[in-house]
């Protein structure tokens, strides 16, 4: 074999190896594309990948006692996020803290720790970033059967609300404007009910929705179970407090809810005097938790959601002084982190920190 023939044979082997290498590379690329497509389709149509990560990276919290109502005041720093597990096994998230990645992970992991697959109700009390920040991620990861949000004339309140609003419109949930007289009632024998006290709907031109102050559009809720009750007021100011207390004294909320029984039905009326629990308004700001409100509700125990060393000075010294005149115990997320209130069917309750 001459020299030229040897060169041709060598070149032929090199070309064959190149073709083989190119074929292997093509097959590898095709394999990777198939894996990526599988992951995308699995994520979209079978089970969200993010939820798998959350499931295996988050230890499960203790299972809710049967027939109990459990409320989680989550430590999201300077913000607000509350998860309610109802005695009929429905669940609700109220607000989602701010839009930082840390808070988003906190809310998503806390939800995973409770074994929640999907929320029955999601409520954005108002449009401020420290309340709606992680709700877009909650909707994307868990979803909700129903969404309640404030009435807005434009979604461009802030980047966090815009993102949440867009995600809500894309979701398959029923979307409602939060307004007075909306209610949530138990679906089994463990009776509870939750009633919206403020604001009135957008059809009312005197509604706080048109007053130009986002805090005062906050959804205010009354919740009752096992002869225990709780008032949740979002960031509503003393002006709103006076408004719904005046309506309450006039009997406006009486007999709004009709609940079927074996012998017909009963009508329900909230009881704001001497309530058991109070979710302190606006993180303990001096603009909320007025004397006028506290003189009526006189809560046994109060809960404040605020961040350690926050720049707003929440909770205000004045607010704490007012609360201490009427309430036996104050619980704070900046001191105790996550706070869990459990109300049992017999009316007993516990408050735990973790």
Walk me through the topology:
Layout lengths: L2 H44 L2 H9 L11 E5 L8 E4 L5 E4 L6 H13 L5 E5 L5 H4 L2 H7 L2 E6 L9 H12 L3 E4 L5 E3 L6 E7 L21 E6 L2 E5 L5 H12 L7 E5 L2 E5 L8 E3 L11 H7 L3 E4 L12 H10 L2 E4 H4 L2 E5 L5 E5 L1
Parallel strand pairs: 3-4, 4-5, 5-6, 10-13, 13-14, 14-15
Antiparallel strand pairs: 1-2, 1-16, 2-3, 7-8, 8-9, 9-10, 11-12, 16-17
Helix pairs in contact: 2-3, 5-6
Description:
With 354 residues, this protein is α/β, with parallel strands linked by helices. Helices cover 34% and strands 23% of the residues. The chain is built from 10 helices and 17 strands. Strand 5 (144-149), helix 6 and strand 6 (174-177) form a beta-alpha-beta unit. Helix 2 packs across helix 3 (101-113) and helix 5 packs parallel to helix 6. The relative contact order is 0.11.
What attributes does this structure have?
354 residues; eight-stranded mixed β-sheet; seven-stranded mixed β-sheet; 34% helix
């Amino acid at each position: 074999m001459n020299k030229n023939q040897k060169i041709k044979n060598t070149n032929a082997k090199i070309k064959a190896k190149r073709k083989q290498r190119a074929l292997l590379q093509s097959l590898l690329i095709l394999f990777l594309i198939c894996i990526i497509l599988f992951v995308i389709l699995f994520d979209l149509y079978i089970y969200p990948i993010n939820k798998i990560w959350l499931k295996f990276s988050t230890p499960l919290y203790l299972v809710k006692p049967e027939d109990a109502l459990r409320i989680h005041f989550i430590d999201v720093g300077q913000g607000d996020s509350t998860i309610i597990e109802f005695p009929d096994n429905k669940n609700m998230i109220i607000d989602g803290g701010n839009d930082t990645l840390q808070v988003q992970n906190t809310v998503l992991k806390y939800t995973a720790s409770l074994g929640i697959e999907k929320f029955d109700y999601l409520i954005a009390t108002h449009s401020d970033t420290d309340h709606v920040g992680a709700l877009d991620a909650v909707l994307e990861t868990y979803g909700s059967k129903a969404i309640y949000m404030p009435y807005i004339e434009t979604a461009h309140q802030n980047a966090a609300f815009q993102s949440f609003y867009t995600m809500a419109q894309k979701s398959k949930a029923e979307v409602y404007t939060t307004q007075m007289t909306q209610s949530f009632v138990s679906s089994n024998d463990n009776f509870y009910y939750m009633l919206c006290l403020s604001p009135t709907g957008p059809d009312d031109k005197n509604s706080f929705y048109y007053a130009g102050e986002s805090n005062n559009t906050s959804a205010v809720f009354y919740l009752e179970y096992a002869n225990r009750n709780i008032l949740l007021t979002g960031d509503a100011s003393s002006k709103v407090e006076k408004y719904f207390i005046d309506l309450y004294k006039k009997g406006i909320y009486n007999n709004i809810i009709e609940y079927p029984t074996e012998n017909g039905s009963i009508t329900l009326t909230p009881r704001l005097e001497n309530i058991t629990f109070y979710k302190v308004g606006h993180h303990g700001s001096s603009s909320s938790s007025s004397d006028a409100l506290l003189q009526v509700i006189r809560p046994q125990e109060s809960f404040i959601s605020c961040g350690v060393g926050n720049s707003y000075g929440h909770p205000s010294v004045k607010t704490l002084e007012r609360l201490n005149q009427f309430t036996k115990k104050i619980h704070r997320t900046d001191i105790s982190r996550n706070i869990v209130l459990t109300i049992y069917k017999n009316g007993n309750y516990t408050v735990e920190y973790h």
